[in-house]
Design brief:
The protein has about 130 residues and is an alpha+beta fold. The protein is built from 4 helices and 5 strands; from the N terminus they run ααβββββαα. The chain starts with a helix and ends with a helix.
């Protein structure tokens, strides 16, 4: 459901100040931790270093490699990535040390949850390199 439709259904036509309140309420709901995806198999955590254009980006991965990653077509509309976002990367079968696919983007609350649970232990070294 789009934000405009949500606002119209909840309160009818509203002013910009009220729209801000509704958007803050939606963000608070989004902050709740749902299921957190954990790397399986060859998947690794990564931080987006630079956007290269289109759906490609340079990602610093937790295994110490710098990969050029892309957002697969099935995720293009759902996954909007910016520089500095933490993502889940799956290296390619061929040239896996240089390329990969971005499968998921983590929110701040999900990252905090994983740090508290001990899943992301090396984050301080992860963010430095």
């Amino acid at each position: 459901m789009s934000i405009k439709r949500f606002i119209y259904e909840v309160r009818g036509w509203i002013s910009m100040g009220q729209k801000k309140e509704v958007m803050e309420h939606q963000e608070a709901l989004a902050e709740e931790i749902r299921r957190v995806k954990i790397p399986r198999g060859r998947q690794v955590f990564g931080i987006v270093d630079r956007l290269l254009g289109g759906t490609r980006m340079r990602v610093k991965c937790l295994d110490g490699k710098l990969r050029v990653c892309r957002v697969p077509g099935r995720f293009k509309r759902m996954l909007w990535v910016r520089e500095g976002d933490t993502v889940l990367v799956e290296p390619w079968e061929l040239s896996g040390d240089e390329r990969g696919d971005v499968l998921f983007k983590y929110s701040k609350s999900q990252l905090q949850y994983m740090r508290n649970k001990g899943i992301l232990k090396e984050t301080h070294t992860f963010e430095e390199f």
